[in-house]
Amino acid sequence: MYVLGIETHVAADCPGRDPEVMRQMANKLSPDNASNAGLRVVGAFMNCPQPTTPGTHEGYFLVEASDEQSVATYFDPPCKLAVQQVWSIAEQVQKMMR
């Protein structure tokens, strides 16, 4: 299953300002570490180029996992993710075309 995790914070509270948090995030995104947890991080994206970018920051994590809770647990800390299952649009279209 695919799970989308979303983390939201304001610029003033951006964890990107803390080198230790960034080390933790690099560790979480490591293919080997994710695999050891039974996960595969398909992609990780954010809507702000720098920790000082004004406004609300959002991080998006697309993860292949057996369940939603395993993704939330894996990323905490440093992130408290809101998680939900998502589906491939291409796969859904193919199913409908059969």
Radius of gyration: 15 Å
Which series of helices and strands comes N to C?
A: EHHEEHEH
Shape label: globular
Share of residues in helices: 25-40%
Segments where pLDDT lies below 50 for 5+ residues? none
> Looking across the biggest beta sheet, what order are the strands in?
2-3-1-4
Oligomer: single chain
Query: Would you count the extended β strands for me?
Result: 4
> Roughly what fraction of the amino acids lie in strands?
25-35%
Total helical segments: 4
Distance between the termini: 21 Å
Structural class: alpha+beta
Average pLDDT, rounded to a whole number, is 95
Main beta sheet? 4 strands, antiparallel
Concise structural overview:
The chain is of the alpha+beta class and 98 residues long. It has helices spanning 19-29, 31-36, 68-75, 89-97, and strands spanning 2-10, 40-46, 56-64, 82-86.
Task: Provide a descriptive summary of the structure in words.
It is a single chain. By secondary structure, the protein is of the alpha+beta class. It contains 4 helices and 4 strands. It has helices at 19-29, 31-36, 68-75, 89-97, and strands at residues 2-10, 40-46, 56-64, 82-86. A 4-stranded antiparallel beta sheet has the order 2-3-1-4. The protein is globular, with a radius of gyration of 15 Å. It starts with a strand and ends with a helix. 17% of the residues are buried.
